Amino acid sequence: MSELLELRNNYLCSLSVRNSTLFLPPVLEYLNNLTSSLGFTAKKQNKIHLAVEEALLLRIDGAYSQVGLINIDFLSSSTQFKVIIKDSGTPFLLNTEDKTNFADILIEKYADEFHINTQIHSGLEFELVFNYDVDDFDITKLQREDYKTETLEDENIRICQASNKMADSEIVQIITAVHSVYGYSYVRDKLYSVYGFRELLHSDTFASWIATNDHKQVLAHCSLDSGSSILKRVPDIGALVTKSMCRGKKIAERMITQLLDDNKDKPFLGFRTEPITIHPYAQKIFTSLGFVPTGFIFHAIPDSVLKLNTNKSHRYSLSLCQRMNKDERVHKVIMPEDNKDFIQDRFNALGLKVEELTAPTTLPSSFSVSYEKEVDSYTCHVSGLPFKTEQNFFLQYQDLRLYESKLITVYLNMNNYDSLASYKYLEESHFFLSGLVVGGEEGDYIVMQHLMRTPLEVDNLKLVPEFASVLERIKKNIMPKEMIV
After folding, report:
1. What's the distance, CA 255 to chain centroid?
2. How many domains does the structure of the chain reveal?
3. pLDDT tens, residue by residue, 119-160
4. Which of 50, 68, 228, 257 measures 20 to 30 Å from 22, CA to CA?
């Protein structure tokens, strides 16, 4: 106890990070380890995590129009733990009166005190204060109190499609559940506020399914999005979350089965999903329902923050997974010689007929690019041969600031014969094949990635056997670290 009190009376440490959500996982992991060592209960640690995460994200998203630094100080006394977030960007004030603003609600609810100082410099100082708990308690007892054992029995669990008529409190439960697994980078675009979620439910392309108990508490959630999928008529199943106390009751399996059944009469060619690799539980669910792993989209943590990430977990890395309905089409695709067996095997596993494309096509060449700030990466769509093959890829597109990104992902159209030349050109530029996204109405795609200067340790991914075997087959494509430009 004396050692704990001594630790609590110290100025702990300071961190400086760039205004990118890519830095969040290691910072929050460091915070969790710190609050645990200070003696906070599990419940209090979670409150600190959520409040600090939201405060950081508000500044990452709003402090600077371009690149800037955010400083974080951790201090403690015998009664309080403080987190001070400072930057020189554009200041703001919390709007705690707006009950649909989820970030402000979390900060106000979970921080025992918060202070905002916009006078000290041109930016903002955000101070969050957390009091030490007087008595510890068993978090499992709290869960049993909140979720009565009898409410987890099969006859008490209801699985249904989420409705726009749901109460705000029910929608907040969904947002909280998704946020706890995916964090801000997902919630920001999809489910960040009650108002935003209601707007999504009005959309013809987005729907949600939930599992609830007798008390209308959300036990699990998933969504179906046919509007943002890269493949037309192959919608994305996403935001799969399950409360930890519900594991083993196959609630998520039942929920996804219900989702698939509710959409069996729609003209979908199949379904796809991208479960995050830190949750092998989701991988097991989808493989048990007939989904086939087709590769990965890797998101690695840069060198500058890798030292804080004690277990080197890939919090943003995604698995590629699909299940196709009956499709009698013959898919004529390019088959690069070094990955020919892999491509044929994945098409066969999906039940799709495939032939190698050996003659020129009339499809035009095209190139487009978009930047995803949340994961600091570029996504390119390529068809045919839009490159000057005698010139380095990065010299051709240096105006896109590609060198500042930590990752580039290319979707290469396999149905265009000229894409074979692009594949070879990208491979020479140290892109590697990481997976396939196939079966859509408008085409089939090879997924290629370039990790820039960011190290990738694929052996740390948490995978079930079906996904692990796919990783083994594509590991040979990954360039050694010293060869990455």
Report:
1. 21
2. 3
3. 545 677 888 888 876 443 333 333 333 555 555 666 678 899
4. 228
